[in-house]
Amino acid sequence: MIRSLCVITILAIGVVLTAQQKPVTVYVQFIRGTHQDTPEAAEWKPVGNRLSKKLTPVFKWPHYWEVKRHTVTIYPQQVSKVILGQEQMLEIELVDPGQSELRLYRKGKLVRKSRQQFDSKLAIMGGDTEGDQSWFVVVRRDRPT
Hints:
Layout: H1 2-20, E1 24-34, E2 45-46, H2 49-55, E3 63-74, E4 79-83, E5 88-96, E6 99-106, E7 109-117, E8 122-130, E9 133-140
Antiparallel strand pairs: 1-3, 1-9, 2-3, 4-5, 5-6, 6-7, 8-9
């Protein structure tokens, strides 16, 4: 009887904690870093100044182009999948209150995984370098400019 009450109490606490977590909206940007000063495709746009200032000192690329942008609503304890390109996919999960896990896939294989406090405003995951360019995924809470 006491064991059953303990199990029910633990389950109830879990339900309450999950219910307290609200869905969160994030913005996902699929970025190309390159030496080319013009985009490869007409729909690519230069990244905003704030993001460019964060990327340029860390990575070797002088130019960053936004290939795709997604607005994603993330629900607690559910995996949100974002198709980035023909070969790349991102999974985002709120694993604990205030903590998220990002899983980046290429050709169906996990290539990067990151867990961080969700109150951080920006997460950057780098992809592979391909000749004179590389790709990045940026997950942020504020709307990109």
